[in-house]
């Protein structure tokens, strides 16, 4: 057969086109891995569907998941050391201190939770008075509840003296907002490689632009004299020194943060750690507090029943809640659990990285280095666990099953699962319940449209509605 010189480029282009087509279609998986979902668009794959239509996209991939694990295998990710949250976080904007964070929350907060109860409700009432105040006439309040949650968190982290300062409370709330806005950037460059997205969103930091730096300066300003005074008191009082109950005192006694001089380097180190605690303790709690209030405000049929429980408990404790009284809020607790279950996130926020090749019990294998995300909606809307209408909001589902809001199980992954369950979940749930208890006692709360407000979707994540809530004083409200 004769080929002219002019036909060679045509064959080259056919070969290149064939190779590219084969490369796009070729499965990028090893033996026994879950099958790849065929690309919808060459090169960028499913990026657009993942960002703008996550729920339907993952629902369509239900039987062909790759790095998204659903109801059948999610518990294995949390129960084995093969999957690491810390390793994935180190590739982002968190320092390598996750284990220290977990230890501090578990020992310094969760283990001493009853001792914080009185201080928590006092700080929440200060926030309620400041941010909502007198509503003798119906008042539309657009509040993300960051500052309201930040005040009791500040009390626990940096102590009662510093938390009285509104600048510190504002710094905690604003830091959470600024940091969260960076994390909320859609991963539009992840189709090239996940690390590309991480490198791009952290690029401003490497060139000196840091919107969180001003909050660090504020905290250092108020923290330094308090730390110096504590070190001096320890030295002069010896055994007579009475240690305050807060996290900065816990850290001063921790070998990792023990010091004799409060230098600038030490201040930077301890403030960086404190702000990690700020993000993990304020962001999620404030968001779920908002979800719960919108869920309550949009369901008039529940108002009287839940209000009556709060009135009864308020009379029993004479306005001063104890841990025992908080435990008696069984209807409110069940309501909060259902709000947490149905907040409509498609995936969990924190991914996991597979540290070595792992084979699930169903025979599927995940290779070393693979990032795994939990398909949260598949777990929380499982009809086997939650009946034929798993998406329906049944406020007393937890009450009927004797499952409190802070209890994790294989069908409830808001706080993770197993040994990796969030150690701060007890504090967070108590904070939400105390806040709602006080708000329901003091106000009639409703949505502007008089029914359930639609949540805001941001890729695979869900945000509370932005239309605000209407607050109106209850008659003979004793707190105002």
From TrEMBL:
InterPro entries: Cyt_P450, Cyt_P450_CS, Cyt_P450_E_grp-IV, Cyt_P450_sf. CDD domains: CYP503A1-like (cd11041). It comes from the Eukaryota. Heme binds at residue 422. One of its GO terms (molecular function) is oxidoreductase activity, acting on paired donors, with incorporation or reduction of molecular oxygen. The chain crosses the membrane at residues 6-24. Its cofactor is heme. Keywords: Heme, Iron, Membrane, Metal-binding, Monooxygenase, Oxidoreductase, Transmembrane, Transmembrane helix. PANTHER family: CYTOCHROME P450. Belongs to the cytochrome P450 family. This is 7703_t:CDS:1. It comes from Diversispora eburnea.
């Amino acid at each position: 057969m004769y080929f002219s010189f002019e036909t060679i480029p045509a064959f080259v282009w056919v070969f290149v086109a064939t190779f590219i087509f084969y490369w796009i279609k070729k499965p990028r998986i090893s033996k026994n891995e879950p099958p790849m979902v065929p690309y919808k668009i060459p090169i960028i794959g499913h990026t657009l569907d993942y960002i703008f239509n996550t729920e339907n996209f993952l629902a369509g991939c239900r039987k062909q998941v790759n790095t998204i694990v659903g109801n059948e295998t999610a518990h294995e990710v949390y129960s084995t050391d093969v999957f690491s949250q810390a390793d994935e976080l180190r590739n982002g904007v968190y320092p390598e201190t996750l284990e220290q964070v977990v230890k501090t929350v578990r020992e310094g907060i969760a283990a001493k939770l009853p001792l914080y109860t009185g201080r928590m409700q006092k700080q929440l009432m200060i926030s309620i008075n400041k941010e909502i105040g007198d509503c003798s006439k119906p008042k539309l309040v657009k509040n993300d509840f960051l500052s309201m949650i930040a005040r009791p968190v500040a009390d626990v982290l940096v102590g009662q003296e510093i938390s009285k300062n509104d600048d510190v409370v504002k710094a905690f709330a604003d830091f959470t907002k600024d940091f969260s806005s960076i994390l909320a950037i859609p991963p539009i460059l992840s189709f090239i490689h996940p690390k590309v997205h991480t490198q791009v969103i952290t690029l401003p930091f490497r060139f000196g632009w840091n919107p969180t730096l001003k909050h660090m300066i504020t905290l250092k300003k108020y923290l330094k004299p308090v730390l110096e005074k504590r070190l001096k008191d320890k030295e002069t009082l010896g055994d007579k020194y009475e240690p305050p109950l807060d996290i900065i005192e816990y850290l001063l006694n921790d070998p990792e943060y023990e010091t004799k001089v409060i230098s600038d380097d030490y201040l930077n180190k301890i403030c960086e750690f404190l702000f990690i605690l700020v993000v993990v303790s304020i962001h999620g709690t404030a968001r779920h507090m908002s979800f719960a209030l919108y869920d309550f405000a949009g369901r008039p049929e529940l108002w009287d029943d839940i209000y009556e429980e709060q009135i009864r408990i308020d009379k029993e404790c004479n306005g001063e809640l104890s841990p025992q009284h908080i435990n008696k809020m069984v209807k409110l607790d069940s309501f909060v659990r259902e709000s947490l279950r149905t907040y409509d996130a498609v995936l969990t926020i924190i991914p996991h990285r597979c540290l070595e090749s792992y084979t699930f019990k169903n025979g599927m294998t995940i290779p070393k280095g693979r990032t795994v995300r939990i398909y949260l909606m598949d777990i929380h809307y499982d009809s086997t666990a939650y009946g034929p209408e798993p998406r329906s909001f049944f406020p007393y589902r937890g009450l009927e099953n004797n499952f409190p809001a802070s209890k994790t199980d294989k069908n409830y992954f808001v706080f993770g699962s197993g040994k990796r369950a969030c150690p701060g979940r007890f504090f967070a749930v108590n904070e939400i319940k105390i806040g709602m208890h006080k708000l329901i006692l003091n106000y009639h709360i409703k949505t502007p449209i008089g029914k359930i407000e639609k949540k805001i979707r941001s890729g695979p994540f869900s945000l509370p509605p932005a239309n605000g809530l209407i607050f109106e004083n209850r008659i003979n409200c004793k707190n105002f």
